[in-house]
Amino acid sequence: MAVTFLARTVSDELGRRIVDEELPAGRRMTLEAIESEFEVSRSVAREAVKILESLHMVRSRRRVGIEVLDAASWDVLAPRVIDWHLSGRRRAEELTWISELRSGVEPIAARLASTRADPHQCAELTGAVMGMAAAASGPDLESYLGHDIVFHRTLLLASGNPLIAEHAEVVEAVLRGRTNLLLFVPNPAAIALHREVVDAVIGHRGEDAEEAMRQIVAEAQEAMGA
Questions:
Q1: Could you count the other beta carbons within 10 Å of the beta carbon of residue 142?
Q2: CA distance 118 to 103
Q3: Are 92 and 183 a contacting pair, CB within 8 Å?
Q4: Dihedrals φ, ψ of 20, to 5°?
Q5: How many CB atoms lie within 10 A of CB 160?
Q6: Is the pTM of this model over 0.85?
Q7: What residues contact residue 214 under an 8 Å CB cut-off, 6+ apart?
Q8: What pLDDT, in 10s, does the model give residues 51-85?
Q9: How does DSSP classify residue 18?
Q10: Among 146, 122, 126, 125, which residue's Cα sits nearest to residue 136?
Q11: Pairing of strands 28-29, 58-61
C-alpha cells in the first residue's frame, strides 16, 4: 500500500511536468535519477514509471532509459492526464477541449436517453437533480459534486450506447477538477437546466433534452472561462 501511494505521488509530479513540457518529448530519465530526486526506493520508482507507461507518456528501453513520448501517444482521455492538464499551465486549453468534446457527446446522449432510459435511470436522474438543489442551498460543494457526477454518468449510460457511455470518466474528471480548482459555484440556472433535461427524458422529448443539455455544457464553459 505504501509503495503504491508513493508511486502515485511520484507519477503525479512527473506527469504534471510532462504535460507542462518541463519534461519535453524525447527527454530521457533514469530510475536512479528518480530515486535520488524523490528519495524513494527502486521499486517505487519502477512502479511510478509503469503508471506513466500505462498512459503511454513514457517508454522504457534497455540501455536507453526512460524516454518521454510525444503528446500524440498519450491516453488523453485518462482521468489522471486530464487532471494534470487542469492543474497545469494548459488548463484553459484543456477546458476548451473538454467542452468541445462534451458538446458533441452529452446532447446526443440526452436525446438517446429520452427513448432508452429505463425507470431506474429516470429515478436516478431525478434524485441527482434534487440532491444538487439541496446541496446548493448549503452550499455543500462536495455533495453537489457527487450528485452532479451521478447525473452525468447516469445520462451517458442511459443513452444505451456503450461508446458514448465510455466518456463518463472523462466528464467526471472535469467535474472533479472544476470543483477542486474552485472554478465554479452552484448556479440555480444550471440546476434548472438539469431539471429540464430530466423532464424531457422522462417525457420522451428528445429535441428538448438535447437542447437543454447543450445549454448546460455552454453554461459550464462560460462559467469556467470567467
A1: 10
A2: 24
A3: no
A4: -90, 0
A5: 15
A6: no
A7: 103, 106, 107
A8: 999 999 999 988 889 999 999 999 999 989 998 99
A9: H
A10: 146
A11: unpaired
